[in-house]
Amino acid sequence: MSSHNASLSYPANFLFVAGMNPCPCGYYGDPNHECTCSQNQIANYLNKVSRPILDRIDIHVEVSPVKLDELTTDEQCDTSEQIKKRVEAAREIQKQRFKNEKITTNSQMNTRQIRKYCKLNDELNSIIQLAFDKYKFSARSFDKILKISRTIADLDGKENIEAKHLMEAIRYRTVDQKYWG
To answer: 85 CB contacts (<8 Å, ≥6 apart)?
Structure first.
């Protein structure tokens, strides 16, 4: 917080999770239902969340409606225990990576640490350049993409960020383009 006479910093460490519909009726873009909203209603609804706020949210994920056959299938998914083990392993990787730093997770990296621990080879630099040209990402988005890529690689047990990790991280920053683009 700052004003003309003072500048204050309040320590905070929190996880922000939010959800919203794509429009007031909730069906804009849904292949199974017809949206009843006008373009003006949709625009007014989406404009309640500003681009600067969106830019500060690390991961954007669009969730599609679940189909009945997906709920009744016998196909096996990862269990919570399996996912927990992957997360714990990734946290241990990060703990070891940052043992000489004053941080413990990828999300806490500053710009210098991002450049040190999120190195991109020529192929990955080409991918990120194409994404920036297409989506017009901000500098803040660039750092978030690299941190998320590093985390995805950690979850995958990989020492280096690979193309699949970077592309997944980019996808987490492009959902807003569909609606706010």
So the answer is: none
Alpha-carbon distance 70 to 64, whole Å? Answer: 12
Residue whose entry in the numeric block shows the structure tokens 């706010």: 180
pLDDT 10s digit of each residue in the chain, 181 long? 555 678 888 888 888 999 999 999 999 988 889 999 999 999 999 999 998 899 999 999 998 888 888 888 888 889 999 999 999 999 999 999 999 999 999 999 999 999 999 999 999 999 999 999 999 999 999 999 999 999 999 999 999 999 999 999 999 998 888 888 7
Residue 177 · residue 48 · CB < 8 Å: no
pTM of this prediction? Answer: 0.86
The per-residue DSSP string of the chain comes to: -B-SS-B--------------SSSSS-TT-TTS-----HHHHHHHHTTS-HHHHHT-S-----PPPPHHHHH-------HHHHHHHHHHHHHHHHHHTTTSS--SGGG--HHHHHHHS---HHHHHHHHHHHHHH---HHHHHHHHHHHHHHHHHTT-SS--HHHHHHHHHTTTHHHHHH-
Rg of the chain, C-alpha, whole Å: 19
